[in-house]
Design a protein that fits this description.
alpha/beta; three-stranded mixed sheet
């Protein structure tokens, strides 16, 4: 088998419907089929995820028990055949030119240990209204229309070089939805590595059905808030409880003053941070 130009790693757990769309979009990339491989890391799924992966005909590694997205990313890097490893979440849709743009970006920026592209929030269903003053309530990224150095990119749309992985070490498997890729990228930058934003390599981050509704978005935001506060505490940069309270109050004021339902999502994130801050140690 020829060595692929790029390997695409997809960590997944119990989200078969989302994964089906993601794998279909990856199969439709406009690179030659021998130029890339797709590897799905099934992190202990109990739904029809194995059947979705089998139907897509991609490489698969299955864990009997969930170990988290960073453990899946580490496994994916280790089994990947290419020296450039692209990573996407299992709830994205990548347009046909996405992977080619990411590969071409890596060629333009040979010193970059990590690269990432735009992430567009895409809601399929009755999503909560926004007043336009807040960021989308799921992970997104827009640093402009030109390539540029970046402090951080996100694992929904990120590529790393194997040489950088060997230098920096594996993703920290203690993290889940807070600090997971961020910790690795910070370690890369501390060691003198470069992170580059590739403007042409954009994809969509999806929420569909009930997942696009306010209640589900609030639950997810609360969990992210707790995890992010825990990560900040590990780094010793966690703000005082009073500061967290002021942010929560500001979210409430935004919600009322702007009649903005998405303010509730911001408030749930802030409430998660506050709950983690006062959790008995």
């Amino acid at each position: 088998m020829p060595k692929p130009l790029v390997s695409v790693v997809v960590p997944t757990s119990n989200r078969a419907d989302y994964l089906d769309v993601t794998l279909a979009s990856l199969a439709a990339q406009d690179l030659d089929g021998d130029a890339y491989e797709v590897i799905a890391i099934d992190d202990g799924s109990a739904d029809r995820t194995p059947e979705v992966i089998a139907a897509a005909g991609v490489r698969s590694v299955r864990r009997d028990r969930p170990n988290g997205p960073n453990a899946a990313r580490n496994t994916g890097v280790r089994v990947a055949g290419a020296d450039l490893i692209a990573m996407v979440d299992d709830d994205v849709w990548a347009p046909p030119g996405w992977l080619r743009a990411l590969v071409e970006g890596a060629e333009r920026h040979p010193d970059a240990g990590a690269l990432g592209g735009p992430i567009r929030a895409r809601f399929e269903g009755p999503a909560p209204r926004s007043c336009g003053r807040e960021l989308p309530p799921i992970t997104s990224l827009d640093l402009g229309t030109e390539d540029r150095p970046a402090e951080l990119v996100w694992s929904a749309n990120m590529a790393i070089r194997r040489s950088a992985f060997e230098t920096v070490g594996p993703f920290d498997e203690r993290f889940s939805t807070g600090g997971d890729e961020e910790d690795w990228l910070r370690r890369l930058r501390v060691m003198g590595g470069e992170v580059v934003y590739v403007a042409a390599a954009g994809l969509d981050h999806r929420r569909a059905g009930d997942d696009a509704r306010l209640r589900s978005l609030m639950r997810s935001a609360y969990r992210r808030g707790r995890n992010m506060r825990a990560y900040d505490s590990m780094r010793g940069v966690d703000p005082r409880v009073g500061s967290e309270l002021r942010v929560l109050a500001g979210c409430g004021w935004h919600t009322v003053r702007r009649a903005c339902p998405q303010g509730l999502v911001m408030g749930a994130h802030s409430a998660g941070r506050l709950a983690e801050a006062v959790r008995p140690r």
